[in-house]
Amino acid sequence: MLVDSPPEPSAETAPAPPRRRAVRAAGLLVSLVVLVLVAVASIAIGAKELSLEQVWHGLFQDSGTYGDVVVGERLSRTVLGLLVGAALGLAGAVLQALTRNPLADPGLLGINAGASAAVVTAITFFGVTSLNGYVWFAFAGAAAVGVLVFFLGGSRGATPVRLALAGTAISAALYGYLQAVMITDEAALGKMRFWTVGSLASATSDIIWQVLPFLAAGTVLALALARPLNAMAMGDDTARALGAHLNRTRALSMAAATVLCGAATAACGPIVFVGLMVPHVVRSFTGPDLRWILPYATVLSPVLLLGADVIGRIVARPAELQVGIVTAILGGPVFIFLVRRRRTAQL
Amino acid sequence: MKAPRKQAPRDQAETAQAAPARVSRGRTVRTVGGLSVRVDVRAFTVVVLLLVAALTAGVVLIGTGDFPISAGDVVRTLLGNGDAGQEFIVNELRLPRVLVGLLVGASLGLGGALFQAISRNPLGSPDVLGLGQGSTAGALVMIVLFSGTARQVTVGALIGGLVTGLAIYLLAWKRGVHGYRLVLVGIGVSAIVTAVNGYLITKADLVDATRAVVWMTGSLNGRDWEQVWPLLGLCAVLVPLVLGNARALRMLEMGDDVAYALGVRVERTRLLLLVAAVLLTASATAAAGPVGFVALTAPQLARRLTCSPGPNLVPAMCMGATLLVVADWASQRVFGADQLPVGVVTGILGGVYLLWLLVTERKAGRI
């Protein structure tokens, strides 16, 4: 069976004692500071070395010098990394709570497959070649698959197992299509092999503005779902008894996760590991309360994504490693270490 | 299954059979020697039907190609009564491909069922745990870095799969291997290896990349007897070994403590079955590439067809074989001979069938 164990009635879901709450709030603050530091590093570090003065100049007294242009480019890359990172982490946390399966990630519900299939269609059949052009296709594909999975998984009384199976089934079919196209159309393969690893390098302010409304709406919606999702973690019957609207919560959670992942994937390709790992890490020190998991995931996911992006720029200078590759190579061992270190916190 | 119920009164057996099938799912078959076997009628029927389907599809597949041969001629040739031309085409060109398909499908189905049972998670298939990716990494290293021959790629894939399996087991080991930890560690390893694969493909030139993608999709093109014999030998050893431990596995599904109390040597059984599953999956992948979703969907489909609990090892095996051969036939019929590799179709076919099951079972209110 899918991991669907009834959660242990732990003290964690009860209101935390004031001291623990203070510690968690302080931790969140520290995480924010770390995020700012990583963001600054992401602007300062790259193929062209810049001093902090130049960074400052580029950020606040832009006069069009070479350094200023570089800072501008890296700024949009950093902003996109922040947005996408937060979106992936939040979506992962919401999906794991929704499916009550700690293995749930956007890939599981078919969202990556939908976006990938739409992009390959755009390249092969509509002749789209620019990254800006991919965005809408990817988003439409992700959204279509999200809706389809939700209805196939059973819009009324969607159970976690059915959602996961529906997602897997649709992914299977779409990846078959994707590979068929890539094998028959070499030009599509040439582009797709770079798109599918996930990269922030193509960030422009255009792309940011295209996805920003979706990311903002999804983030607000996801953060607002913490309470009902907390109730749902107790199992359907208990949740109903506690007054949660099961179907409404499921529909809204799917909507939030789909919008977040869809927009993130549209902007920079499928980055797979962030949404799976960060909620895991966060859960290991916050416990199962989503009112803490969601904000922590929002702050710490971009730390991972931007950190990985910076490292990808340093190790292969002057070329760079795509962020999706670095995230997995860095995150994988950490993830395994965490899994080994403790009895994984159940949802 | 031997049951010491020699003196069971005849009338008691009659009542057991008269009872609704839902209560006692099995039928007891007694032999004259005093042995009795409990047979799950539905599971048995499913296995027989799947075998028939697999063999029929195999015969049809042998007859399909640029030089079509009727099913009757195929059977005649297989029995040794065909003419020389047909014999060459059937025995040398097409039979090995079909046999590789059957063996790979069976191995993947069985390996998938084992992994899903050991991890106690329907998503805990070798694809998800990273074994497929491990084999792919081995093959990609050969293709991209060394521009290796087909045989080198096969060896690379085999080594990649086995090393990944070993790494997952060792990393998940901590006073025993917990099913849940196994899945999570597998996912971590899978993510790392996938990233490495993605990197290798972006570094390859386009010709190598195309070759790599075809390999990664899984294909039966150009398979010959050289692939059949090792696979057959391995299956001949591993399948009886696994089936002999099926009862222990079924008890393992109830949880380590219960299984231990019932007399199962938990860790030893699990290690044995895991090694068998890794060997089956890695060798199947080395022979045909990581054919997508067979290991994931075959056990699920088998379970839904037999409607019986437990790991459903034999039905899953037959399902995998049927799925792969039917998919290969479909890919040749629909897209033309050797245009698209079989992995494309298994993905689409498995996915669509799983969806269909979801929809129908939802209507029947069974899930």
Automatic annotation (TrEMBL), chain A:
One Gene Ontology MF term: transmembrane transporter activity
Family: Belongs to the binding-protein-dependent transport system permease family. FecCD subfamily.
UniProt main location, coarse: membrane
GO cellular component: plasma membrane
Lineage, opening ranks: Bacteria, Bacillati, Actinomycetota, Actinomycetes, Kitasatosporales
Superkingdom of the organism of origin: Bacteria
CDD domains referenced in this protein's UniProt entry, alphabetically: TM_ABC_iron-siderophores_like
Name the UniProt record assigns to this protein: Iron ABC transporter permease
Presence of the UniProt keyword Membrane in the record: yes
From TrEMBL, chain B:
One term under GO cellular component: plasma membrane
SUPFAM superfamilies: ABC transporter involved in vitamin B12 uptake, BtuC
Membrane-topology descriptor: Multi-pass membrane protein
Major place of residence: membrane
GO annotation terms (biological process): siderophore-iron import into cell
GO MF annotations in UniProt: transmembrane transporter activity
InterPro entries assigned to the protein according to its UniProt record, in alphabetical order: ABC_BtuC-like, ABC_transptr_permease_BtuC
Transmembrane segments: 43-63, 98-116, 128-147, 153-172, 179-201, 228-250, 271-293, 342-359
Family: Belongs to the binding-protein-dependent transport system permease family. FecCD subfamily.
Protein name: Iron ABC transporter permease
Organism annotation: Streptomyces dioscori
